Amino acid sequence: MSRIILALDSVIGLSTLTKIREYISRVKFSYVTLLQGGLGYLREVYKLKWDEVIFDLKLADIDSTMISIVSALRDLSDSFISHSFIGYEGALDSLMTYLSRENKGLYLVLSMSHKGWNDSFYPYLKNIAERVNPKGFVVGATRPEMIKNVRADFPQKIIISPGVGFQGAEIGDAICNGADFEIIGRSIYSSNEPERISLEIKEKQEAKINECKKVPKDRK
Amino acid sequence: MSRIILALDSVIGLSTLTKIREYISRVKFSYVTLLQGGLGYLREVYKLKWDEVIFDLKLADIDSTMISIVSALRDLSDSFISHSFIGYEGALDSLMTYLSRENKGLYLVLSMSHKGWNDSFYPYLKNIAERVNPKGFVVGATRPEMIKNVRADFPQKIIISPGVGFQGAEIGDAICNGADFEIIGRSIYSSNEPERISLEIKEKQEAKINECKKVPKDRK
């Protein structure tokens, strides 16, 4: 099984996706996917039976607004991504309660992949993460030290890691640092041969994991 | 002119909106409006000639993702709302450049209205705000001290303030503390008589502003 999540920030044809699905078993939607493809497209992609579909809404609002958004997209995803910095009371408390009741997963962003993100807030975000107790966390692959920190602080939680490929991190590095899945988008969907590139990325990741001998556990 | 922005987090009929438009000249869309009403509804509402339409996406992503989202919704709004905590490089720098080029406004969230929001990060966010130099800021009406701080720090910027009504702040208080506009949603769209309530809110706000004698300037 590959440790890759396809960031579908572009509309790829369903037949191509079905082929990519042989190498990459998880997919991440975003507002870009929704705006470009519409709800109908998301519905068709969801039906392709991925191991997990994650909706990356980067939720960062008050509780009632986040729950309204998530409830409208509930049938199109297994898990949702929210920011942690918004805090607990009146925000993540009710969102987590809602998602648990709906049997949906929540991933909290603990560190982003772009240059301007400030990791000095991590002690604060970690505290919120402990209170929320979500399924897992998002930590940028461009932040190897942060992946190690979050892995040490939350040994049982799933870590998913964006920023691989176009954003600069090498395939496999985030896994070797402690992540469970690497999120790859542009390298695949901007390619003329997304199927071949998917296979290539899967093999590169496997080679790298073999090299560092850090095979992720199957966390639930 | 009323100092009210209607938070359209629900689908209100166009004829009712046309009547509300007599008392409230600005409207704020959110993902809830988009998901419930669809792009076609937003397009029709936009045509009602508001003084300003603001799309409250609470953007909080890397530059390329935020720009993809905003460019898909460009023709439906005059301004967009983004979080500030995501930082400058690789996020707000490019977003601000893009929006300026498109003649669109940007409002940065500096303080939210719910209990869990932590204002101890304000000095950091203020620094980012100074670098971005946006059209204005979002500061929760439930945080009177923060409205005063932001007004003192940014005398020329527009402050828009959510959290009025259902979330606890009294109509007019945010204006008296230094905000330019109060954002009101549920009190209006959950009412059986949204038109009458809109007029009532407008009059209450005017009375309150007369009481505190703090009429906002016309900031651009």
Q: What does this protein look like?
A:
- 2 copies of one chain form a homodimer.
- With 220 residues, chain A is of the alpha/beta class.
- Chain A has a single domain, classed as TIM Barrel, CATH 3.20.20.
- Helix content of chain A is 44%, strand content 19%.
- Chain A has helices at 14-20, 31-46, 63-73, 88-101, 122-132, 144-153, 173-177, 186-189, 194-212, and strands at residues 4-7, 26-30, 52-59, 79-83, 105-111, 136-139, 158-161, 181-184.
- Chain A has an 8-stranded parallel beta barrel with strand order 1-2-3-4-5-6-7-8, surrounded by 4 helices.
- In chain A, α4 links the parallel β4 and β5.
- In chain A, α1 (14-20) packs parallel to α9 (194-212) and α3 runs parallel beside α4.
- The radius of gyration of chain A is 16 Å and the shape is globular.
- Chain A starts with a strand and ends in an 8-residue tail after the last helix.
- The model of chain A has no long low-confidence stretch (mean pLDDT 95).
- The A-B interface holds A 9, 30-32, 35-36, 57-63, 65, 68-69, 72-73, 83, 85-93, 112-118, 121, 124, 167 and B 9, 30-32, 35-36, 57-63, 65, 68-69, 72-73, 83, 85-93, 112-118, 121, 124, 167.
